[in-house]
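To the structural biology subgroup,

Please find below the input and predicted structure for Rho GTPase-activating protein 1, which we are adding to the shared reference set this quarter. The sequence is reproduced verbatim from the submission form. If anyone notices a discrepancy with their own records, reply to this email rather than editing the shared folder directly, so we keep one authoritative version.
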Amino acid sequence: MAEPHITNQPLMKNTNVQNDTEEPYPSLSDFHDYEPNLEFDDTELQTATVDLALDAKVEALAASYDYLESPVSDGTIEENFEEELVDAPTGYDSLTYQYGDDDYDAFSDVAKYGIVEVFGDDTAGRRIIVVSACKLPPSKDLDHSKLLRYLMYTLDKFVEQDYTLVYFHYGLNSKNKPTLSWLWQAYKAFDRKYKKNLKALYLVHPTNLIRVVWQLFKAVISVKFGRKVMYVNYLNELAEHLNLEQITIPDLVIQHDERLLAKLRKPPRRMVKAPPPPLPTQQFGVSLQFIKDNHQGEVIPPIVKQCIEYLECPDALETEGLFRRSANVAVVKELQTKVNQGIPIDFQGNAHIAAVLLKTFLRELEEPLMTFDLYDEITQFPNISKDERPRHVKILILEKLPEDNYKILKYIIQFLAKVIDRCDLNKMTSSNLAVVFGPNLIWCQSGQLSLSAISPINMFTDFVLVNQEQIFII
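Predicted structure (tokenized):
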């Protein structure tokens, strides 16, 4: 199918994606005078068979549109509509799920394509999950039902904390695209637990096919979920919301973006300039040694100490979802700037702001607190026998971790033990905190978080949290 023409539309400035407020949004009907007659009965979606005739109608209808709009629900559906999808698969419960050594291996035939990737946190402290359509193999080579289970397996590790989803649409074609019945099955499978903490869904390089599919599903998509979806026509627009240096964008997507910009006679995406030298007072985005050298030799970075001292207060410790919820992006950026300039900051009585700043500090270190050298050993943690794990972890932390890193890690872990002690109120168990902090304590030099490394890193972090009294020298 030839790619439909897309008329350039400005990016919808969806502030609700970040602040999650309830301001009204424009409906699709604001942009046109009629609803297309799709001659479509949604009972056709409730079967597992491929409806080729329906697919052909959708493709034909997609070709008839020459512009895109904001995919925001028109507000005619009840907010609790999703509760009626009671037959959706439940998946894992990430609050109680114990990571198994063989979970990833079961999906190795799907994972090898790299369709789904997990990266660091965005500016609001939310994990970024990227899905790339260009990496989908031909449908005959991929079990789409297994792909769905693999998506659920990946999301299950993050659905209890706020997260961001990026979908690169370029590369989807008639040979590799899933059927509409599969899309309907996926929508039912991803029940409320997956949707409630998804704070932003960016559809990058959308074609009119996406718009038509949205029209088909609009009747069963809630208003609240619709507000989280954003069309992003160019990568430079995505850069307004995410740090593109934190994610790996497929080369095919970058080349497609350059072709689109060339057609519009827009200048190509600017190369990222080398950052200016850090200020002497800077703490975010520099090394631990730099902070120590410029802050009177203090081993514990001042911002880490300030965040933890604030969060140790009973009211903060008992905040439900501590470290699992995001914070206002503008506020976090403002506080980061002040910290780097040596200006005193105020958390505004908001524990989530302090929590996000602590996570952001760890994630933006030039080298992770657990160091690049220990990455391979940590990701092999599941292969160590349970009897050998205490000795192995002690050697790794007490002997192989640099002294300053050890002291900072001990300071943070002993604070997190206090968070766990209040888990009956804040709902943050050791496994929940491991999911949040594991990828912020250790990552590989490429910055990408391999799905095969997620479980080992979380298992290792959970072990350290549970056994901190035996591991750290008092």
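Summary notes: DSSP finds 22 helices and five strands in the chain. The two ends are 67 Å apart (CA to CA).

Regards,
Lab coordination
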